[in-house]
Amino acid sequence: MPLTVLSIAFLAVYAIPILAPGLPSSVRQACEVANIVIWAVFGLEYVIRLGLSGNRPAFVRTHWFDLLVLVLPLLRPLRALRLITALKVLNRRTQALTRGRLAVYVAATTVLITVVGALAALDAERAAPDSSINTYPEALWWAIVTITTVGYGDYSPVTVEGRLVALTMMIGGIGLIGFVTGSLASWIVERIAADESADDNETTVTRSDLAGLRDEILQLRTELAALRSTSADAQAPPDRE
Amino acid sequence: MPLTVLSIAFLAVYAIPILAPGLPSSVRQACEVANIVIWAVFGLEYVIRLGLSGNRPAFVRTHWFDLLVLVLPLLRPLRALRLITALKVLNRRTQALTRGRLAVYVAATTVLITVVGALAALDAERAAPDSSINTYPEALWWAIVTITTVGYGDYSPVTVEGRLVALTMMIGGIGLIGFVTGSLASWIVERIAADESADDNETTVTRSDLAGLRDEILQLRTELAALRSTSADAQAPPDRE
Amino acid sequence: MPLTVLSIAFLAVYAIPILAPGLPSSVRQACEVANIVIWAVFGLEYVIRLGLSGNRPAFVRTHWFDLLVLVLPLLRPLRALRLITALKVLNRRTQALTRGRLAVYVAATTVLITVVGALAALDAERAAPDSSINTYPEALWWAIVTITTVGYGDYSPVTVEGRLVALTMMIGGIGLIGFVTGSLASWIVERIAADESADDNETTVTRSDLAGLRDEILQLRTELAALRSTSADAQAPPDRE
Amino acid sequence: MPLTVLSIAFLAVYAIPILAPGLPSSVRQACEVANIVIWAVFGLEYVIRLGLSGNRPAFVRTHWFDLLVLVLPLLRPLRALRLITALKVLNRRTQALTRGRLAVYVAATTVLITVVGALAALDAERAAPDSSINTYPEALWWAIVTITTVGYGDYSPVTVEGRLVALTMMIGGIGLIGFVTGSLASWIVERIAADESADDNETTVTRSDLAGLRDEILQLRTELAALRSTSADAQAPPDRE
């Protein structure tokens, strides 16, 4: 929970200098300092969790994404990737996964990647002389056109950092399309299967069918037990004779 | 039914001033008035349904799309979204969902989004000085290139409202691809499974298999009953002795 | 079979005047005449099949694609669509549908749509003054960029007929992506299910499991029959006594 | 294993003259010679394997991709396709296919196609006067934009060879999207099915259910055996009487 607050604070101090480039230099520096401090806190948190974990190599292996996000920010516009770890918290809670929850989670990730990616691209591109992405609305429009893989080409990044951001967004876009498609496919399969099951019901075996069978076997045993006792009675008289 | 007629009337008074910009100002104003009147009727219908519903917060929650469509038209080009609610009526009737009906429904929605989206984009873009979308054929071509996610970039919106329309169409396009893919995937899985079932039939359990088992258990009980009666006969003589 | 030959002849007389615009006018006219004659033969064939069919409205309904292809060629560049009916013949033969056969069929359709679509687009675009598609290699490159939905925008059609061809190809492209995805999805599901079945085997019920159960019940009956006969023997001596 | 080393050596002698066009002509010629020698080794290896195989036509049919890769390099920029055969080795080892291993394999293939495709496109395009792809970073950016099917159009190939490379990458891109989608679809289906099985558990038949049934039948047999022996005891005394 405190880490989520910290993530939002990180987004604020990251976004403010990008969105308001005319800020006095002291405010810009304060944001930069806050940015580095929050980064250090996340680094410390990672080191503490690493120290507390019993099996350290296993911890590094299963938390590789946390480490990547921690190291990547050396490239400044990629620092925004930290926000995605906040969404990972959501992921952990989805024990009973329904299609609706998955959709909300994917939609939230997509919006976050688009909004933050536009920030990062603007940060990287604004300084380039031949760049077409110079304002946040333009960056956001470019981000939407990219993540949906439409790619008009009216705006496109020209710097290495801007293109790394674009690569992240294109991968996100393919994942988004994949999720939407996969979700619809599973829904279609389910709906059509449900409609067909009205006819199919006669030929599938359920536990209640087996329960019926078991009941009959139990009756068989009861009858057998009755037979045994009468048989025993029948034997007893000859013994007494 | 009257609401469907009203939706078509809405499309007409929405489309006419866009498609025929040279109309006398009195006709344009009549269309604008009719547009607002129809909007008010839809608003009234929503309020009445809200009033009639027992659980009002639940009604707002389950009918969020109706409310969104009611509020969004404040942005004029987005008023066309109202038409999509007419398609929701279709959706309610699809109790027995087959792949064919789904395909017709998806195709109809796609055509409607494309035609109406082109109208809305033309309305938003025509006034902009540096816009490339100035006639309805151009808008329709742009809409097709966008919804299929091809995105040549020969035409692209430059206004905020035009880009919001584009965003709606890109989301529609991803949904369209997702549906086509999901539908084909479920069809492929089904066809291949059907062809394999000729060989597979030997290893699946059906109720008729269980019925065979139950028959044998019943015969067992019959024999046991017969055994019991002969055993009872066998006992009787010693009693009489 | 003669219709397939006729389809190939149709492609030839359709393609030759487009690919070799410098032909003497007499050759061009001969091709045009042959084109119309073949069109008439297909029309005649449709009318004969319609006449022979018992239920004519049903025939029109189930053969709507044949009728569409017959009527559409009035728009000259769309005449090429006839070739797709030749592929429908292939479709009829796929009784036992395997993933491999489907892939071959889809690949063949995609190549045909691309090659013929490039012809049709070149035919439509060459005459337009501001068109970028002026040679067959350019048209083919444009067709590839369109059907894969990449859409660079270095070449794009500007005429209504060229854009109708593009629409057909975009729909084909979405279908292509849908097929590839659906095919891979069904393959992945199958492969992973097959690998899991090694562990899963313990918990699924097959007919051989039921056969084992039935064997035990049969043994039970055999023993019961044996018991009955010994019980009958046991009764017999007292009777003789 | 030696073939994998040879493939990497092939990539090196292929890439060096492309990435460093300012090399002295002697080094360029050495690379070209090494390239041809490695090509000859691969050709020899194919011929030897063909000679050793019992059924030669079947060998050609099942190893068509190896032959294609061997013949295609006559078009120089396509020689890079040889590297994909190295990945086929990976494919052979995936006996127990899990979704994770498939993802690693697909990701590796995608990165290889992108990196090598950018090399091949740069090789083909650099010489063309009106080409926009003149440096390796530009070629790599173009390759990423193409394989994700975004297609901005800021860079696009103009030569026939460059466009053949683009075609290969677009097919790769569609395959990539298809794999991601199919993988997510199978994952979603599985996760949702797993969550539903908590409720569903009551109605599915497993082998443990059958085992319960079998236990009861075994008890039945045991009791029957006991009945038989007591019945035999009962008979014995009268015999002795």
Characterize the structure shown.
Four copies of one chain form a homotetramer. Chain A is mainly α and 241 residues long. Chain A folds into two domains: 1-79, no CATH class; 94-228, Helix Hairpins (Orthogonal Bundle), CATH 1.10.287.70. The first copy, chain A, is built from nine helices and no strands. In chain A, helix 1 runs parallel beside helix 6, helix 5 runs antiparallel to helix 6 and helix 6 (99-125) crosses helix 7. Chains in contact: A-B, A-C, A-D, B-C, B-D, C-D. Chains A and D meet through helix 8 and helix 9 of A and helix 7, helix 8 and helix 9 of D.
List keywords for this structure.
homotetramer, 241 residues, mainly alpha, Helix Hairpins, 2 domains, membrane (chains A, B, C, D)
**How far apart, in Å, are the first and last alpha carbons of chain A?**
87 Å
Give the number of domains of chain A: 2
The count of DSSP E runs of length 2 or more, i.e. the number of strands of chain A, is 0
Structural class of chain A: mainly alpha
Could you name the CATH class of the largest domain in chain A? Mainly Alpha
Strand content of chain A: under 5%
Number of helical runs of chain A? 9
- Oligomer type: homotetramer
Largest sheet of chain A: none
Helix % of chain A is: over 70%
How would you describe the shape of chain A?
elongated
The CATH topology of the largest domain in chain A turns out to be: Helix Hairpins
On the 0 to 100 scale, the average pLDDT of chain A is 76
Q: Measured on Cα atoms, how large is the radius of gyration of chain A? A: 32 Å
Largest interface: A-D, 52 and 49 residues
